[in-house]
Amino acid sequence: MKELAKQYNPEEVEDRIYDMWLKGSCFHAEVNPNKKPFTIMMPPPNVTGQLHMGHALDNTLQDSLIRWKRMQGYEALWQPGCDHAAIATEVKVTNKLKEQGIDKHALGREGFLKEAWKWKEEYESRIVNQLHKIGSSADWDRLRFTMDEGCTHAVQTTFLNLYKKGYIYKGSRIINWCPVCHTSLSDAEVVHEEQDGNFWHILYPLADGSGTIEIATTRPETLLGDTAVAVNPEDPRYKDMIGKMVKLPLTDREIPIVGDEHADMTFGTGAVKITPAHDPNDFEVGKRHNLPEINILNDDATIHCPGSKYDGMDRYVARKAMVQDLKELGLLVKIVPTKHNVGTHDRCGTTVEPMIKPQWFVRMEEMAKPAIKAIETGELQFVPENYGKTYLHWLENIKDWCISRQLWWGHRIPAYYCQDCGEMVVAAEMPKVCPKCGGTHFKQDEDTLDTWFSSALWPFETLGWPEETPEYKYFYPTDVLVTGYDIIFFWVVRMVFSGIEQTGKVPFHKVLIHGLVRDDQGRKMSKSLGNGIDPLEVIKKYGADALRMTLLTGNAPGNDMRFYWSRVEASRNFMNKVWNASRFIMMNLDKAALPETMPSNLTMADKWILSKVNSLIVEVNRNMEAFDLGIALDKVQSFIWEEFCDWYIEMVKPRLWSEEDETKSAALWTLKHVLITSLKLLHPFCPFITEEIFDTLENPETPLMRQAWPEFSTALDFKEDEAEIETIKEAVRSIRNVRTNMNVAPSRKATTYVVTENERVRKTFEHSKVFFATLAYASDVIIQNDKTGIADDAVTVAIPDAVIYIPFADLVDIAKEKERLEKEKQKWEAEIKRSTGMLNNERFTSKAPAEKVQEERDKLQRNTQLLQQVTERLAALSK
Ligand SMILES: [Zn+2]
Ligand SMILES: [Zn+2]
Fold first, then answer.
1. 441 CA to middle of ligand 2, Å?
2. pLDDT at 1 over 70
3. Residue 858 sits in a domain of what CATH number?
4. Same domain for 799 and 678
5. In terms of domains, do 698 and 738 share one?
6. Among 500-514, 764-778, 784-798, whose mean pLDDT is lowest?
7. Residue 264 is part of which domain span?
8. Nearest to 289 by CA among 267, 269, 265, 272
9. Could you say which of 773, 794, 812 is where a domain stops?
10. Centroid of ligand 1 to alpha carbon of 283 (angstroms)
11. Same domain, yes or no, for 699 and 797?
């Protein structure tokens, strides 16, 4: 038999094992009518960066599930891929070019895209390699990219389908605009933060010279785009002014006063300026009153106001200048400091500007309905369930989805404009002839699609949709989606409505939501805090299995977890325990012939551990089904560590070491069976170490990851023996407790009497005499019906239906113990004298710091207690 290395060295083992799996196509799944499919779509990591702890957690959960199902006999597909991450990548590539002194616009669209593809190649292979490192058993033969040919085809098909149905439309809408990234943003990309600001109170003179009207605004520079002042029609202060005109300060325009509910009588002066082109609410007011929309900002947030002195100024410079000018005109009433909510771009932190831009939208009302129904009927379930509410909240409040982005890196919108007559044609390819004027010159829309438009199709586009491929028919819909709660809206919601609309099916049935991995103080890991922990560093130091175990056991569905290095160390210690126990078993297996089938002379201990591991299978399955992976792993771990290593292996040692013991081969058979079953149960969580041990032990044709998952067997169900060994364990534990309390060294063996009238208990101890003696440090085990012959001073240990007696003299050398206790007694007496002296000294108690005095009082109390204990034990010894 091959031998395991003396020490487990994950670095050496992991790469070798992973290569072996790859070469053996162990991760590959094929359409197989003889098996049931089980499919997980890997949330495609962005090609912008590298693996972080969140990815490590997300992938460990998926990998554990897929390995478990694969061993259970499913055709298990874990579909991997990467996301082009439109804006995130474009920002990165732009910055990289900037560092090289290259301007994106000077390079042009095509040149820029070339650079972006280069970037993608580099980062994709980097992130894939990192996923290899943590042991991901994804089907790498099927690696996809959201902008590859197939996905591009799927995106186009979806766009055309939605357009034909009237669900996609082009419209001028007020959108969030990032003046730095030069693109529109979806609401979800805007982070609202409270900032310090002011209310500027400004007077607008009435055009007929009959007075002024006072408005308050947090953004005076937008005054240039005002097209009305609104007052509440019920407001007695302004009733008569509705319909009058005001002279808009700093301009030569006159604008009307309109009556609209939007003006709140109880807030500010009750009169508000209306800037339809730069405020979403004003936009709506403008629609109601047919007001013009005047855009006063360029794309970089400088002022656009031809002929005005403010034209070309930055928005904040213009604000200052205009406030100054208003002041000089006597139109500035006052400035009131306030806190207000400001929207910023989540990627670059720039304050976003509401702007009117022609954009592409997806109409959401109809598509949201079946997605809401899916959760109501239970066809779609969240784990934990409460995240279904988050999902519903998004869907019930959904607005039309702005899908166009003014970016280059992404799927270009398949709309073409006739250069002769302006006609728009939406088609898969550039049209040859204009259907309106017969012209032949077309230009494609410059915009690209929101990155989530393509990732929304991920569960089916990766399987060949829109073609009815065998993979699509077999693996779709998928089984479970594993993802973080932070992208329920961005991604989960959009996959569901897109899946239902395009394929008629809910794309997955379960969504397992996990939380964030935070640092040991509970803070989010972030670049700015510098508290991020690189999973690869953890793997290098402790091995991938230890990292996986740490992430899994600290995790409950939906909850954030904290990352502690000490927990990784504990996981590493467990790996060493498994390794050493396996080495021990293998060394013993080497020395004896092993029965082929279950031996008939199993002892009670053998039956107990066989029965335990047998029921462990059921428990692991039950917890995995419920997605409690952490609990499942915890059960496997405590079985291996406590029941198997600490108890069973210790119990069988005397049998292994005795040449005469007739049950030796039964012990070896049991050790091997339990070890193999344990390795299989541990494999989904800790794939590397289990594979290495199994392969060394069995030298199999099929690696462990492709072996069958253990099944519960009634032949190994020994409930009675389980109960009996529990009795022995309780006796051992109680004896060890007593010995610890009395300070008895394990080397000091003692005669141990088991007194019981219960026939079953008597037999239990008789059968287990040998290992009971070892575990309970007994020099001799005597089992009898009554107390005959047992010394009066024997220490007693009670367990159900029996009492165990150990002669006191066996445990303790009385003369030596008395000597030791006397010394201790003197020490406490001296301490007490010292403390009492200090506390009686008035100078000490009045001058020393209060906590010093208290400290001394505590010491005195503690030492008095200790003295009392020592005195009592001395008295007992002198009896
Ligand atoms: Zn930005
Ligand atoms: Zn035309």
1. 8
2. no
3. 1.10.287.380
4. no
5. no
6. 784-798
7. 191-339
8. 272
9. 812
10. 23
11. no
- Counting ligands in written order, the one closest to the CA of 443 is 2
Q: Which ligand is nearest to the CA of 405?
A: 1
- Which listed ligand is nearest to 352 at the C-alpha? 1
- The reported pLDDT for the residue numbered 471 is 97
pLDDT tens-digit map of 161-176:
999 999 999 988 888 9
**Does any domain span residue 479?**
no
Q: Where are the beta strands (DSSP E) in 363-502?
A: 381-383, 401-402, 404-405, 415-418, 424-426, 442-444, 448-449, 478-484
Cα 46 to ligand 2 centroid, rounded to whole Å: 40
Residue 652 burial (C-beta neighbours within 10 Å; 0-12, 13-18, 19+): buried
- Per-residue pLDDT, averaged over 694-700, amounts to 95
pLDDT at position 416, please?
97
Can you give the CATH number for the domain in which 601 is found?
Answer: 1.10.730.10
Question: What is the pairing mode between strands 508-514 and 144-145?
Answer: unpaired
DSSP class of 594: -
Question: In terms of domains, do 821 and 808 share one?
Answer: no
Are residues 713 and 726 located together in one domain of the fold?
no
Q: What is the mean pLDDT of residues 292-311?
A: 93
Domain assignment present for residue 14? The answer is: no
Between 188 and 756, the higher pLDDT residue? 756
Radius of gyration, alpha carbons of the chain: 38
Q: Is the pLDDT of residue 677 over 80?
A: yes
Q: What spacing in Å lies between the alpha carbon of 421 and ligand 2's midpoint?
A: 4
Ligand 1 centroid from CA 409, angstroms: 15
Verify that 678 and 731 share a domain, yes or no: no
**pLDDT, position 79:** 98
CA of 197 to the centre of ligand 1 (A): 21
Using pLDDT thresholds of 50, 70 and 90, give the confidence band for residue 594.
confident
Distance between CA 599 and CA 236 in Å, rounded?
99
Same domain, 296 and 218: yes
Distance 442 CA to ligand 2 centre (A): 8
Give the ligand whose atoms come closest to the C-alpha of residue 177.
1
Give distance in angstroms: CA of 420 to centre of ligand 2: 5
pLDDT-derived band at 111, boundaries 50, 70, 90? very high
408 Cα–ligand 1 center, Å: 15
* Helices H / strands E in the chain, number of each: 28, 29
Which alpha helices (H) appear in 165-314, and where do they start and end? Answer: 280-289
* C-alpha 169 to ligand 2 mean position (Å): 20
Q: In angstroms, what is the span from residue 440 Cα to ligand 2's centroid?
A: 8
Tell me what percent of the residues of the chain surpass a pLDDT of 90. Answer: 76
Q: Is the pLDDT of residue 672 over 80?
A: yes
Task: Give the burial class of 711: count Cβ atoms within 10 A of its Cβ; 0-12 exposed, 13-18 middle, 19 or more buried.
Answer: exposed
**Whether 690 and 552 share a structural domain:** yes
Report the number of distinct structural domains present in the chain: 4
